[in-house]
Amino acid sequence: MTATTTSDRSDLSELGRSEATLRAFLHGLPGVDQVGAEQRAAQLGTRSIKTTAKAWAIDLAIRMVDLTTLEGADTPGKVRALSAKALRPDPADPSCPHVGAVCVYPSMVPYAAEVLRGSTVHLASVATAFPSGQAPLAVKTADTRAAVAAGADEIDMVISRGAFLAGRYKEVFDEIVEVKAACDGAAAGLPGSPRAHLKVILETGELATYDNVRRASWLAMLAGADFIKTSTGKVPVAATPPVTLVMLEAVRDFRDTTGRQVGVKPAGGIRTTKDAIKYLVMVNETVGPDWLDPDWFRFGASTLLNDLLMQRTKLTTGTYSGPDYFTLD
């Protein structure tokens, strides 16, 4: 890790005090070489791994899945069933690892909590007027506190893209700070509630440029994000390898500068084992093995898990199970 003086870290902590200092810092970040980023991501996507490494990678990818349902038609029964699958993805194979988390709307948190209570599977909830982010701050913080009170130990918040694209960086910064504070259940008057980890969704498909992705990544981390996440999965362009590469470089440089490690979560459009392994190769080659852990890298997915399970069965038994062998999510 690059040595950083106490004064350097103190200077970073002061950035959120004014719009001018925050803007100067974010626009002073090195620009992203678009061609270079896309070529590097494509090159990493061509790497192949041996069969033994593939088995390890599949199990790791399963442990990194945030098994997600974010539909208006979600019901308590559907959420309970999804949570049971999170605990035992393949009921016929007890050696199959559990997933990283279940991710649901705040109103569905109590039903997931019933099933996950006592396990090590995390319970994540989207909040802050997901997916648009278009709500007053008081509504966003109330949404967050309600999810934490119901049992969520991870909050996936979405930034105000309109404010960010209009250059109102301090507004976005302050919202993240306030939502981070609302993640602390005890501080919010909920004794015994742990502080939920905060994943900040950038909605990179709406940020237009890689430079904006880098700026938004740094803005979120400076404001206290525990994870930065690509997408809601509700816009046409979700996670892409070049965008994830830019975000991985940002968390690497942030740790070199501040000493604090932040996780990354690509979400939306990652559907196959082949895709997941490409992302794991990118993580290893860009930020190193410290991030090859569910505490620091996750996949936001609803359909990826079934393909991982089918490929795992193929490696174990030599034959494919049909796509209808595992429950649909």
TrEMBL record:
Q: What class of enzyme is it?
A: lyase
Give UniProt keywords alphabetically: Lyase, Schiff base
UniProt cross-references to PANTHER family, sorted A to Z: DEOXYRIBOSE-PHOSPHATE ALDOLASE (PTHR10889:SF3)
Q: Does the keyword Lyase apply?
A: yes
Protein's organism = Micromonospora echinofusca
EC assignment: the record states 4.1.2.4
InterPro entries, sorted: Aldolase_TIM, DeoC, DeoC/FbaB/LacD_aldolase
Bilayer-crossing residues are none
- Please report the name of this protein according to its UniProt entry: Deoxyribose-phosphate aldolase
Q: Do you know which NCBIfam families this protein is assigned to?
A: deoC (TIGR00126)
User: Which regions form coiled coils?
Assistant: none
Q: Does the keyword Lyase apply?
A: yes
Signal sequence span per UniProt?
Answer: none
CDD domains reported in the protein's UniProt record:
DeoC
Kindly tell me the pathway this chain contributes to.
Carbohydrate degradation; 2-deoxy-D-ribose 1-phosphate degradation; D-glyceraldehyde 3-phosphate and acetaldehyde from 2-deoxy-alpha-D-ribose 1-phosphate: step 2/2
SMART domains, per this entry? DeoC
Q: Which GO terms describe its molecular function?
A: deoxyribose-phosphate aldolase activity
Q: Which reaction does it catalyse?
A: 2-deoxy-D-ribose 5-phosphate = D-glyceraldehyde 3-phosphate + acetaldehyde
Q: Name one Pfam family in it.
A: DeoC
Q: Which family does it belong to?
A: Belongs to the DeoC/FbaB aldolase family. DeoC type 2 subfamily.
